[in-house]
Amino acid sequence: MIGAYTMNGMFVRCLLLFALWVSLPTFAYAVKWKDVERELLVLNQNPFDPGSEALIVFNDGMLRVFFTGEVWWELTIYRRIKVFNKTGRDYATVTIPYLSQEKISDIRARVILGNGETIDMKSNTVADLPGPDRYGKIKRFTIPGVEDGSIIEYQYKTTSENIFYLYPWFFQGYDYTLSSTLTVTVPKEFEYKGGYVNLAQQPETSRERWIDGRGTTYTWTVRNMPGVQEEPFSRPLKNRRGGMNFSWVSFNTDRGRFSILENWKDVDDIYREHYEAHMRRRGVIPAVVDSLTAGIDNPYDKVAAIYDYVQRNIRYTPMPFIGSTGNYSGRILARKRGESIDLTVLLCTMLDQAGIKAHPALIAPLDGVPFTPSMPTPVQFERLVTHVPVEGGEAIWLDPTFMGTPVGVVPWQNQGVPALVLDGSGAITRTPSTNHMNQEERELALSMKADGTVSAEGSITATGEMATGYRRGYAYGSDDDREQAFRNQLQRYVSDVSLSKLEFNDQSSGAMPVTMAFSFQGTGLATAAGNRLLVSPAVFGRIDEEVLPDAERTSTVYVGPVERTLDRVTLVPPEGYVVESMPTPVLVRAPFGRFMARYKKTPEGVLYTRQYALNHASISVRLYRELRSFFNRISESDQQQVVLVEQPAP
User: Is the separation of the CB atoms in 367 and 379 below 8 Å?
Assistant: First the structure.
């Protein structure tokens, strides 16, 4: 973790020369439990959200900073929750993740039963558990005796020397919150900055200077906030909660003013130093890189070879982003696994070993917390990728965590988003967008039989994100894996699939389009009705059901990558059948996309053409009704059928 010991030399020397004890006011309810109102004891359901599992009575925190020759902070949490049913009782089990450089202390918890009786949790029931990696830990406890109608409450304190990474405070929870307060005590030597995220209401605020003039206490309170709710195609719940970011900007001493996180250059310097330190211990990396790049002179080809190796051989293990790593690059290679930070540190190290300069880059993904450029703090980022500058050309961006993503392309969730390249410039830029490349063309010939079965032959050509999807799902597996994956895809539209051919082009270069040829037999595309066959020519991409519910929407819709697809389906009737009728053409235009379906008689039978374009990966909530109508009209079109009728015998 990045602690006080990673600060620049002048900063550290100043701290050693300037020792000052700051007396801070006591956080009263960290010691004494608050009284419980009788009205809360007898409450048997949430009056603000009837039928819900719980009511968060209050969720309070106090952040204090100390300046004692070193700088450190502590955050005290105190929560009270009324539970109403079995699901609500899950709140009784509390998990507190923390970093190895942090300390969790003063854990207290109790339950208040409906009759007013209290049961205190014994301190020896708190479990110390290893976290998901060697620099993470967990404390976990279960409050005893909780039943429907109980009130549970707990408090604990987090202490840390890492003044660069302050966790966001969330006023909003997953259930209705009556009150949430953040109190911050700031010594006079410190400047701070705060910024709201996802907040639908303005907090109540207050400011109180200490009597002795040595600091100020700030308070923010939000009341009566509904819990964040699941919605389809939305950002993760954790990224939709209303809260605020908080960071220390600078501090003043008799020797002058010193920056902490005053601008993005400060963030750049701190994290660049951290990652570079972990790139120095390389282990067997030199030998591996020499082997991978032997006989390769072109720098781009070296990048491709190293990137492909990391992508194929180092397993990505998703973890909450904390901005730092406890693993040095040689160890990451030896373990063959890591999170986005680890894979980026390893990739930058290997590229540097090959003589290619590369920088880690912090990014704020599309489905993350909304980014605030005026708030220089690392908590706004959720991933790390690799940036390779190219003299006189476009930089190369690399993200090995998404299997199948080619050199120079980041996954759609990370395209066109804010990024801080750790190259010393401190400039916020944006990752490149390759939306124009996301295209797929599908050709399909359907030869129908009188019993409704079909023989099909076709091909698919995909580029951009569409090709990445096929590469990830098919191209890297064995022949059996590919066939089973494609069979599974077909079975969304066709029953009783028998796959007779599946061929892929060479995918040794991830920059190439994916092309595949196939043939299969199956049922389910046609329904017999007397002497008629009703055939659904929409196969790939068909929408069979409602995509978005008929409900009030509260958040942006994330429908997936920008894409354009074109389907050309030739429908050949069975011998003795002719085309009796075809659906009318459909054209749907919207601010975010376009859909077209048309039918044309041909000497062979029918040519069905389907074009779909989605021009934005995220759609504003104000366009939700129009978006829902857009997909519903596509679904209606995809259910339309061509009617084939049997000709009477001559």
Answer: no
| Chain CA centroid to CA 12, Å | 36
- DSSP single-letter state for residue 569: E
Q: Assign 544 to helix, strand or coil.
A: coil
What DSSP character marks residue 383? E
Assigned fold of 4-259: Immunoglobulin-like (2.60.40)
How far apart (Å, rounded) are the C-alpha atoms in residues 91 and 598? 54
Interatomic CA distance for residues 533 and 91, integer angstroms: 57
What pTM, to 2 d.p., does this model score? 0.85
Closest CA to 99 of 243, 236, 237, 3: 3
Nearest of 147, 89, 87 to residue 115 by alpha carbon: 147
Q: What are phi and psi of 483, to 5 degrees?
A: -65, -40
The pair of structure tokens assigned to 77 is 């949490």
Find the angle CA(563)-CA(565)-CA(567) to the nearest 5 degrees: 170
pLDDT the model gives residue 508: 62
The answer to whether 283 touches 333, Cβ cutoff 8 Å, is yes
Provide the mean pLDDT of the chain.
88
Stated as kind and residue range, the H or E segment containing 64 is strand 54-67
pLDDT at 163: 82
Residue 1 is encoded by which pair of tokens? 């973790």
Q: Are residues 198 and 370 in contact, defined by beta-carbon separation less than 8 angstroms? A: yes
Sorted by where each begins, the domain ranges of the chain are 4-259, 264-433, 436-646
Q: How far apart are CA 98 and CA 580, in angstroms?
A: 69
* First vs last C-alpha separation in the chain: 86
What is the Cα–Cα distance from 396 to 7, expressed in whole angstroms?
A: 30
C-alpha count within 13 angstroms, C-beta hemisphere, residue 322:
23
Helices (H), 73-206: none
Fold classification of 436-646 (topology level): Jelly Rolls (2.60.120)
Q: Taking Cα atoms as reference points, which of 601, 584, 600, 590 lies closest to residue 636?
A: 584
3-class DSSP state of 210: coil
The helix-helix angle for 264-279 and 340-353 (nearest 10°) equals 70
**In sequence order, which residues have a C-beta less than 8 Å from that of residue 308 and are 6 or more positions away?**
510
Strand partners, 588: 595
- pLDDT the model gives residue 9: 35
- Comparing C-alpha atoms, which of 28, 19, 65 is closest to residue 186? 65
Paired tokens of 232 = 């389809």
Sign of the alpha-carbon dihedral angle for 292, 134, 174, 148:
positive
Q: Cβ distance 38 to 114 under 8 Å?
A: no
Q: How far apart are CA 395 and CA 72, in angstroms?
A: 39
Query: What is the CATH code for 264-433?
Result: 3.10.620.30
Three-class secondary structure assignment of 330-347: HHHHHHCEECHHHHHHHH
Residue 132: per-residue pLDDT: 65
Tell me the C-alpha distance between 551 and 624, whole Å. Answer: 10
pLDDT at 615 over 80: yes
Two structure tokens written together for 392:
């006189």
Highest mean pLDDT among 206-215, 250-259, 380-389: 380-389
Q: Is 143 exposed, middle or buried (0-12, 13-18, 19+ CB in 10 A)?
A: buried
| pLDDT for 189 | 83
The answer to whether 247 and 166 are in contact (CB under 8 A) is: yes
The pairing of beta strand 54-67 with beta strand 177-187: parallel
Contact 381, 168 (CB under 8 A): no
Angle, CA 564 vertex, CA 366 and CA 307 arms, to 5°: 55
